[in-house]
């Protein structure tokens, strides 16, 4: 049986004061119970100062969708909860079930800011269905763990306060409080995987083994605990073989067993990119980055990130935008903003940091670009000139960072590579280069 006291305790554990909450509201019994519980919470905890809104997403798959939207609006009106709705368009030629889920969460997140809380009415029966879907996808322990009561999302957090309760408990609560709800006829169609599992598979298993669902949930919890333990141990391993938890030692990776190597890479990529790599992707990293020639320079893209290697270490970096097009004039004491959130540069006088000088009367313009000169470069104190690539190698600059070094020119002459060195003819005690990076 669902009790308000249990719900209140769990909600206070996961949602702080003054939070903004978005309830996924379909008008079905699960979400009607959810809205009712939050309505009670808000009334009884006014000092908690939650901002709660219920959002109905119209997938356009049913002729009754407008009718359901009206029901949801009226339901929220009686509960004093703000109501919103949004219509989404689905690609009906693709997997409608997966596409609808993706678009629904995308639409719900459009009502959220970072730090807000998405709350949905998932319950224990949903969890068991998720187990079968994970088995179909050949998931490992993490996938077989199913959904969690609370987790971080790309935008904000996701809270599922009803996850431990079976469907019967939700129906019992709804009937006790005389709630009304809508029935989605598409839930009867076994052409959808989740409905097929719910209507054809789980009932047959439960008929043969009455405790099947509770046993399945216990197994999922065991998978979750074992996965958490394994992740904790692997993260300790990552800290041991890495440079501040970021760059992994390739030599130490080579000494791992295949199983440990795969899982270590999986956790590391997920931690730094928030993307879980595929088995194929992990094997590509192992082949092209770890067991490859030292001087190779492979690139593996994963989402908005790249896997790279440099000097026996493996890195994950953002998939940086090309900056070679950028060129801008600047004046002394004038702040300029660099593109793609790369920060700002100012040429100023700072007695403690002055390393630069120009003629008293500037005959040529100063400009910042990300293009190195084609000729030889002479850093201050060096008698031998070298091309930029050679200096970058000598200063241990990774290949991806070389394209992100700002070059300060006086006319057509290179005055400095910002963050690296000042050139011979421009060394002095008059000025300094202040580069405030925003991408680190």
| E-strand count | 19
Instruction: Please give the alpha-carbon distance between the first and last residues.
Output: 49 Å
Tell me the overall shape.
elongated
- SSE class: alpha+beta
Q: Supply the CATH architecture of the largest domain.
A: 3-Layer(aba) Sandwich
Mean pLDDT: 92
Integer-rounded radius of gyration? 29 Å
Question: Can you give a write-up of this model?
Answer:
This protein has helices at residues 4-14, 29-44, 65-79, 96-109, 124-136, 141-144, 167-176, 193-208, 212-241, 250-254, 258-273, 279-290, 388-394, 399-402; strands at 20-24, 51-58, 82-87, 117-119, 150-152, 157-159, 242-243, 247-249, 300-302, 305-310, 313-318, 327-330, 336-337, 344-348, 366-369, 407-410, 413-417, 421-422, 432-436. The longest helix is centred in the middle third of the chain and has 30 residues, at 212-241. It contains 14 helices and 19 strands. The two termini are 49 Å apart. The model has no long low-confidence stretch (mean pLDDT 92). A hairpin with a 6-residue loop joins strand 13 (336-337) and strand 14. It is elongated, with a radius of gyration of 29 Å. The strands form four sheets. The chain has a six-stranded mixed β-sheet, with helices on both faces. Strands 7-8-11-10-9 form a five-stranded antiparallel β-sheet. Strands 12-15-16-17-18 form a five-stranded antiparallel β-sheet, with no helix packed on it. Helix content is 39%, strand content 18%. The protein has 440 residues and is α+β, with helices and mostly antiparallel strands. Helix 5 (124-136) packs across helix 8 (193-208), helix 5 (124-136) packs across helix 9 and helix 9 (212-241) crosses helix 11. The protein has three domains: 4-208, Rossmann fold (3-Layer(aba) Sandwich); 228-318, Chorismate Mutase Domain, subunit A (Up-down Bundle); 327-436, no CATH class. One of its GO terms (biological process) is tRNA modification. Residues 366-433 form the Lysidine-tRNA(Ile) synthetase C-terminal domain. It is found in: Cytoplasm. This is tRNA(Ile)-lysidine synthase. One of its GO terms (cellular component) is cytoplasm.
């Amino acid at each position: 049986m669902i009790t308000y006291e249990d719900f209140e305790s769990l909600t206070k554990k996961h949602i702080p004061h003054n939070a903004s909450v978005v309830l996924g509201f379909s008008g079905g019994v699960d979400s009607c119970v959810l809205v009712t519980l939050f309505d009670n919470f808000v009334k009884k905890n006014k000092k908690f100062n939650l901002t709660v809104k219920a959002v109905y997403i119209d997938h356009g798959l049913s002729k009754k969708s407008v009718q359901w939207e009206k029901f949801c609006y009226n339901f929220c009106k009686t509960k004093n909860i703000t109501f919103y709705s949004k219509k989404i368009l689905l690609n009906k030629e693709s997997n409608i079930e997966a596409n609808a889920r993706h678009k629904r969460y995308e639409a719900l997140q459009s009502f959220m800011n970072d730090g807000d809380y998405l709350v949905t009415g998932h319950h224990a029966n949903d969890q068991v269905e998720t187990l079968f879907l994970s088995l179909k996808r050949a998931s490992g322990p993490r996938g077989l763990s199913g959904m969690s009561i609370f987790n971080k999302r790309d935008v904000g957090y996701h809270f599922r306060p009803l996850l431990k309760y079976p469907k019967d408990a939700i129906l019992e609560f709804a009937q006790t409080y005389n709630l009304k709800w809508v029935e989605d006829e598409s839930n009867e169609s076994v052409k959808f995987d989740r409905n097929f599992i719910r209507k054809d598979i789980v009932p047959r298993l439960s008929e043969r083994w009455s405790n099947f669902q509770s046993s399945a949930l216990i197994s999922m919890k065991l998978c979750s605990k074992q996965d958490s333990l394994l992740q904790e141990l692997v993260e300790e391993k990552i800290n041991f073989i890495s440079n501040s938890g970021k760059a992994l030692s390739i030599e130490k990776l080579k000494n791992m067993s295949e199983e440990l190597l795969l899982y270590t890479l999986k956790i590391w990529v997920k931690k730094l990119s928030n993307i879980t790599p595929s088995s194929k992707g992990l094997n590509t990293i192992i082949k092209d980055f770890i067991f490859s020639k030292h001087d190779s320079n492979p690139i593996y893209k994963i989402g908005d990130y790249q896997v790279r290697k440099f000097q026996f270490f493996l890195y994950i970096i953002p998939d940086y935008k090309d900056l070679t097009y950028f060129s801008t004039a600047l004046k002394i004491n004038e702040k300029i903003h660099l593109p793609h959130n790369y920060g700002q540069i100012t040429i100023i006088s700072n007695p403690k940091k002055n390393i630069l000088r120009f003629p008293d009367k500037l005959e040529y313009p100063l400009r910042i670009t990300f293009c190195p000169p084609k000729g030889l470069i002479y850093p201050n104190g060096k008698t031998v000139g070298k091309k930029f690539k050679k200096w970058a190698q000598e200063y241990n600059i990774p290949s991806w960072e070389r394209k992100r070094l700002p070059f300060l020119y006086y006319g057509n002459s290179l005055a400095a590579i910002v963050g690296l060195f000042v050139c011979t003819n421009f060394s002095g005690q008059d000025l300094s280069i202040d580069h405030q990076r925003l991408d680190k």
